[in-house]
Amino acid sequence: MLTLTSALCRAAATYRDKLAIIDPEGQFTWAEFVDRIARAASVLQSLGVERGDRFGIICRNSFRNAELMYAGYWMGAVPVPINYRLAPIEIADILTDAGCKTVAVEPYFEALLGADALKPWAASPLWITPLATPIEGQSYEALLSAAVPVPVYAAAEDDEAVLQYTGGTTGRSKGVRLSHKNVISNGLQVASTVHPRSSDILLHVCPMFHSSDLLATAFTLAGAAHVYLPEFSGDGLFAAIEKHHVTFVIMVPGMVVMALKGADISRYDLSSLRALWYGGSPLAIEWIVKALDAFQVADIFQCYGQTEASPAATLLLTADHLEGVETGNREILGSAGRLLPGIDMRIVDSEDCEVAPGEPGEIVIRGPNVSRGYLNRPAETVAVFRDGWYYTGDIGRIDDRGYLHVFDRKQDMVITGGENVYSSEVEAALSKHPKVLECAVTGVPDEAYGEALLAAIVTGPGETVEEEELIAHCRDLIGGYKIPRRYVFLDELPRSTLHKVLKHELRNIYGG
Q1: Which of 254, 277, 446, 464 has its CA 20 to 30 A from that of 186?
Q2: 48-67 as b/e: b if 16+ CB within 10 A
């Protein structure tokens, strides 16, 4: 069965004495961890959560966070991981939209429940606590110890497993309904390409409220062990790898850059690490070289996907990275790789007709990993989930070797003077300037051209650069109409909780 409950039962039976959880508080085998999951389901039931209900989770990365997610699957309830960096009113909007009966909260976020917007859920939250806790009432661990394990619910493959809210980088978050089949299918697709091992130890670095954490499904299917990093920092990352002998780590490019810039990696023993996975956007070739040198990994992967795809759709493999580095082929390193097994892709124009090979258009995908649609958004569901295909809203092309090149979100494509400009192409040109550390390009209103290109530039430490210098630099790399004529120089780019650049904030701030 392609269900998460079947996967957990199999892990408990096949890998029962192998470690599932490695944590400063202790270690649990798969048999022990699945027993805790069954008890956690009992705790949820004692709070009135029933089969088919949704419940929120506000918690940093931890094994208890994972335990409660799995407990929902186990009993047929639907977990809703919450972005705790949102404002209380935004969190309340998600809990209301999802119809959550209760919310499990780490004491670290106790102050959040004091907000007026969250009062409906503040009366009786499930505090996710160890035995020693400052919170009044029984600790989570005490409740768990006293609970009678709940028998596993025989979930159907198409049952809703998790409600995953989008990051909201382009507007209000949407609840993406992911079924058991969606999540397990993508876990199998990833596993068939990445080949996780039962001896692997996966470090959860990206926030668990983000769909990227679903990539861990491939490792659960393989019987690997899991370690959780509560909050990201370069030193925290390297220390966790060293302490827990981590073999596999998944990050976004911003985290890779921040770690290499912000910590002295030579202080740590990272010899256990065998693989680095990054996704969300490409890494500049200079940072790929630095990452390979610093992490000394045998394998490196880059992923393209979306929450609606559970989340991975394509993968750039180790051989691709090595080819790009050894030959200086920025084309392949700037790509998102090739399709994972079982996924179909089309590139279409505004009339839904496939474009000529190599031409840009909207990326459209289908496969067993693709969501059924959004919660409470019938119009948006109908608009992007059509005839079994998901219309991603991303613009890209497929080259003659089958590699996907992602340019922009449709709304990030800039039409200036009647010409289509993909900001990623302009960013790639600007990034080649030796004084440019990071950049982001977007469109802002312009009376003459409709839209004008705005470039936000972060220079390297101690560096300064003039607009004229950047314009001259770009002339040899891209067409004149693609060269930004407006620049802002920033200490850092505005980013989401997953370090994705928030271009809509740049438009809002500098669009005038």
Answers
A1: 254
A2: ebeeebbbbbbbbbbbbbbb
